[in-house]
Amino acid sequence: MTKGRVTLPAQEGMDEEIKKIVKRWGADAVRDSDGTKIPDVIKKEADKVYSKYFFTRGDQDFAKENLDELQHMFIMSEPVTATEEEITIPILAGYFKDQLKPDTDNDPKKWWQVIDRTTGEVVSTDQWEYLEETEEVKVTDAKLWHRYTVNVLVYQIWDPVHMYNHITNDWTTEHQMPYDPRYPKTRHYILERLRTWLDEHPDTDVVRITTFFYNFTLVFNDVREEKYVDWFGYGATVSPKALEAFEKEKGYKLTAEDFVDQGYYNSPFRMPKKAFLDWIDFQSKFVSELAKECVDIIHSYGKEAMMFLGDHWAGTEPYGKYFKNIGLDAVVGSVGDGTTLRMIADIPHVDYHEGRFLPYFFPDTFNEHNNPVIEANQNWLQSRRAILRKPIQRMGYGGYLSLALDFPDFVDRVEEITDEFRDMHDHVKEADPYVAPFKVAILNSWGGQRKWMSHHVHHAIWYKQCYSYYGILEALSGLPFEVEFISFEDIKADGISDDIGVIINAGEARTSWVGDDYWKDPEVVEKIRAFVQCGGGFIGVGEPTSYEHQGAFFQLPDVLGVQKEIGFSLSKDKYNDQRTPDHFILQDQHEAINYGESTRYVYQTSKSATVLDIEADDIKLATNTFGDGRAVYLAGLPYSPENARLLKRALYWAASKEDVFHEWHTTNIYTECAAYPESGTFVVINNAYEEQVTQVTKPNGMVIDVTLAPMGYQWFEI
């Protein structure tokens, strides 16, 4: 196939150039972007036309006429220390005032809170007043040397994504204000406006919804930089209307502090509280019901409804219980790496999935000081591994095509990538890939609700505190395993499924990804110990099973064979065995292992444990036997081809399945193999920028020699 499966961003004023790119990249669909339009002549070149649609921004006349129905959020002021009994707190200090405005239409004494952050006590409304002229809260009878903050209900007077584009792409258009469909007038308006828009766009085949109603939490500071960003956040979904409806439906009342959360704003790294989980459920139900109305209208016009997994996706969680009710035809999302590709590709209840690959055609990447081919190659190498495990059906790019055309090498490289993408589908023919004969389960507090979403702050953005754990997901995205995401509540309710071979628990102590106080729950530790005792595998990374309780920090030291010193037991002598380099897990390891930020002060607690790597008396890699089962401890695991192979070996060893490890295995760690028995094909890929030579072992023991070009691949018949 030389054409198809590719969506091209189009814009006005470059008709002939677009026609050439359509042919070179084999695009069968064209799309507009935020701030661009598709020329009519280009629409005729495509089999499908995508048109973006914003439900809750764009019509500024409506927004200006209904300022009391703008979207809200709760924010926390910067803390002020009381040096006298009367203090004033500037509520918007440090915030971008073009984005937020205090809501005084709704009584501040009802919705706002002043909190003594030294004690955590809520200050009585009799002790404070709002000074509207100066945008300050005055507190009386303050306790000396205590710190005080104000939880403020604010209007969003500038949509954060529109603001981002202004800052990034130097837009000068009028600021767009988002309106809230919780209010009946706005709800009626957006449904009628959708019908009008559909009438005006008869040549649109796919309505690309960007997304539905509420943006993830994104707040800017007073110098127009991001102050707080949470791609999973629900901070922008609040309103007096919604809070009153919540109280009626759930039977209890929420306060500003339930959203401000001491300034953490219910980050996904926090252990989710009941109130926040109830709010997610409440808003997701509302969003799904209204979204279904919108999708039904789109379908009545004979058009497809595609949701962008990104901007304004709060309440449309694709792995939540209400998503299936929306009735979408497709999802599209930004592909930052293999993990985010799997986040998109695994979404159920849609007909097809589309990935928007990097880099975006924005001036921060496409400029004279940068080479976008570098980012395109890295993005493709990591994404390709995941596509071979769980394919998306379509791919594309976003932004301003005019910028990309100034880089001929980039245009050439994308031509190769789009051809390779189609070639994959031609060979795979929708067959499932070979996987190991056991499942891998990622255990955290969110479970399947946040599948492929752990250790994210903002969609595939690198963070120093995250990459040592995020690398596990990235490695798994392209490894031959079926991966499940389970929660502690799943284990308590249903136990551990018989088809799970290995459980992984990874992250920092106290975070939701490790589980915090779930590890002092006897039912949890009983069931996991029994699972390993009876032959299951357990892999802990960083500070797994951690919760200081009953003289232990790691709550499964008997399973892991190691413990972490946190300063309480320095008087107890520790003895770590010398490194044992000859082990199945280390057979592909020829250089020092990269543990990322690593974990310190881990020591051996069981004589059955074997230390595979140790630095300055800190254990970095160890194995242990527990009954008929096995466990592996790792101090961290950033993504790299070397660490992907290390994890693969650790998983097979923990599952006691070394005997089938070499099925569809490549000897060179920079190469990988994906086999499709149903379609009778297999492929070998090179994940490096240099030529690689490797051998592939088939299940029958036959070995094949393969030489691969830089970033290359070869298909074979089984």
From TrEMBL:
Task: Fetch the Gene3D superfamilies from UniProt.
Answer: 3.40.50.880, Glycosidases, Golgi alpha-mannosidase II, Immunoglobulins
Q: Residue ranges of the Lacto-N-biose phosphorylase central domain? A: 439-659
Q: Which SUPFAM superfamilies match?
A: Class I glutamine amidotransferase-like
* Domain called Lacto-N-biose phosphorylase C-terminal: residue spans: 664-716
One of the entry's Gene Ontology molecular-function terms is: 1,4-alpha-oligoglucan phosphorylase activity
Which intervals hold domain Lacto-N-biose phosphorylase-like N-terminal TIM barrel?
4-435
The domain of life is Bacteria
NCBIfam families per the UniProt record, alphabetical: 1,3-beta-galactosyl-N-acetylhexosamine phosphorylase (TIGR02336)
List the protein's name: 1,3-beta-galactosyl-N-acetylhexosamine phosphorylase
The organism's lineage is: Bacteria, Bacillati, Bacillota, Bacilli, Bacillales
